[in-house]
Amino acid sequence: MSNQSICEACRIRAVDVIETTDDPVQPYRLCASCHERLMAYALRPIEWYNLASMHGSFKPMLHDDFYEEDGTACQPELDVLVTKQDEAPTLKEVRHDVEALLSFAVSRWYIEDDVTDSLKRHDPSLLFDAVKTRYVATQNIDVKARLLEVVADVIATPAADWVRSLWHDVDNELVDSLAAATASSLPTEEGLQRVYDKLDEIEPKELPSAAFLSLYRFRSPDVLDWIESNCDAFDSNWARLVAVSMPTWHQMNAWLERGRPLSLVALEAMVNCLEGYDGLYVESQSPHILQTRHDEVELVLTAYEQSDSVHRVRRQVATILQHKDEIFM
Fold first, then answer.
1. CA 162 from centroid of its chain's CA atoms
2. pLDDT score at 54
3. What is the rounded end-to-end Cα distance, in angstroms, of the chain?
């Protein structure tokens, strides 16, 4: 039987059902038994793994409400009998085979450092060829995004020409993933311009979130000038992006002088430099306000508080002054 004729879950029996509930573009091709277990959230670990490694683990019928990352069913509506041969493979079992390792990476909720380290041990050209082949072969946005994540975290500069080619016709749902690959593979100025051009197409209300997801990996102070030209209203995503873009005290002071919305963005960016005050993306970058004239900090912040004395500003100024040794460098 051809691969198209074999059940994607068990990879033993013939296909009986084309299940389109999760994705009509890339439906599940299943035998009757596996289809029954899928619909009952009762796949065996290897069956879940085989589907997740092809379709990604974010599909509604596969995601973490119903399965652990080892494929164990959490809320099965049928009994799940699991033998040794029904267990999903571990990283240790797949790490020496580039194709098997890529399948493992696609099945993960997130790529952890141990998976990245295993990918880096493979010949870069062989890994890159495998990534490109899979990217072209799938229409699945989640899988394409994961492959671009591998490019961003593992392949980097050798992928430059391929990454450039993808910008010609990139799906809007893949912009942030392609931007991450761009940040690691292209010169900063060129990469930023490609992202800026795409962000120009985004609706204003969606722009702060899209900008953060697409630009945070660059960690470039050039992003601050772009924010200054595009920030029309306060949004916490502007502040998150500022925090990871190498902000200087000089620029933050200038934004405080200009007033809202940039002054509010500057204050929250300072707070976001504190450990635990923002999400993983920001905290992992260990941000600081750079080139600070420490003798100015308290005077400037106190003066701003007096000119914009709302509760939020007072609270943030107090937090910043309490932790100024952690925030400013």
1. 20
2. 97
3. 64
Q: Which residues, listed in sequence order, are joined to residue 329 by a DSSP beta bridge?
A: none
- pLDDT tops 90 at residue 31: yes
What per-residue confidence (pLDDT) applies to 180? 98
Tokens 């050039």 correspond to 222
- How many helices (H) and strands (E) the chain has is answered by 19, 2
Residue at token pair 């405080």: 256
| Alpha-carbon dihedral angle through residues 212, 195, 184, 267, given to the nearest 10 degrees | -30
Contact indicator for 204, 227 with CB cutoff of 8 Å: no
Distance between CA atoms of 215 and 161, rounded to whole angstroms?
20
What does R_g of the chain's alpha carbons equal in angstroms?
24
List pLDDT tens digits, range 278-323: 666 787 788 999 999 999 999 999 999 999 999 999 999 999 999 9
pLDDT on residue 284: 78
DSSP state of 67: B
Question: Which phi and psi (to 5°) does residue 30 adopt?
Answer: -135, 150
Q: pLDDT value at position 267?
A: 98
Contact status, residue 152 vs residue 217, Cβ threshold 8 Å? yes
Q: Please, which residues bridge with residue 146 across strands?
A: none
| Dihedral angle computed from the Cα positions of residues 223, 227, 229 and 233, in that order, rounded to the nearest 10 degrees | 180
pLDDT at 278: 64
Give 276's pLDDT tier (boundaries 50, 70, 90).
confident
Question: In angstroms, rounded to a whole number, what is the distance separating the alpha carbons of residues 193 and 146?
Answer: 23
φ, ψ at 190 (rounded to 5°): -65, -45
CA nearest neighbour of 41 among 12, 74, 8:
74
Structure tokens at 23: 């994705």
Report residue 7 CA to chain centroid gap.
31
